[in-house]
Amino acid sequence: MFLITNRKLCDKNKYESIIYDACKAGVEYIIIREKDLDSESLEKLFMKVCVKLSEEKTIRERNKIIVNSNTDIYRKKECDGIHLPFSLFKSLINENFYFDKNKLLGISLHSIEDIDEMEKIKRESNIKVDYITLSHIFETDCKKNLKPKGLKLLEEGKKHTDVKIIALGGINSDNVSEVMKYADDYAVMSEIMKSDNVYRTVENLKIYK
Predict the structure, then answer these.
(1) Known Pfam families for this protein (predicted)?
(2) Domains of the chain by range and CATH?
(3) Is the pTM of this model over 0.90?
(4) pLDDT digits (tens, 9 = 90+) for 174-191
(5) Quick one: which of 30, 44, 90, 179 has the fewest CB in 10 Å?
(6) Angle at 112 (CA atoms; ends 175, 29), nearest 5 degrees
(7) Where are the alpha helices (DSSP H) in the chain?
(8) Which residues, other chains included, contact 198 with Cβ-Cβ below 8 Å and sequence gap of 6+?
(9) For residue 136, is the peptide bond before it cis, meaning its omega torsion is within 30 degrees of 0?
């Protein structure tokens, strides 16, 4: 399970604790998103999360902390990977950016055409892509007035790539079992960041197991 952070959805004083509790309850990957922050502020927040998760050794060893888009933070030893919009991924490829094969690389995609293009780039550049997110699957407040892609995108996506597919968008305890028929894993944001009981929320999201 992936958690994509959004500090605007929770009490700012509980931000690190929500992430910590989510990891303790079973979330494996954290994507620090916070797109509105400048690089310095994002790095400070990123390091706070690292410190919080390090309070319990087994949690920090088990969980991966991924930064969204910021290549400077990606280069730091504390960072386990980077998640990129497809457009930024292509720009970095054109710039011959060095992707560390010991770190995770995830890319946001939204269509079968995106998947096919990603596969072509991956082959030509010999780049290791660890996972892709496909979105948005269901209606979500993050994408108001945009029609969701539905489960069909996941189902068709499997035919076009062997890269791990992460379903994203409107996923909750009511639909996660359907999602996992077609995806390798799933990502959530609001369901956890807004939760008053993170342990219970994560446990409910794990019901499909």
Answers:
(1) TMP-TENI (PF02581)
(2) 2-205 (3.20.20.70)
(3) yes
(4) 999 999 999 999 999 999
(5) 44
(6) 50
(7) 15-25, 39-53, 57-62, 71-74, 86-94, 112-125, 151-157, 176-179, 190-193, 198-205
(8) 18, 21, 22, 25, 192
(9) yes
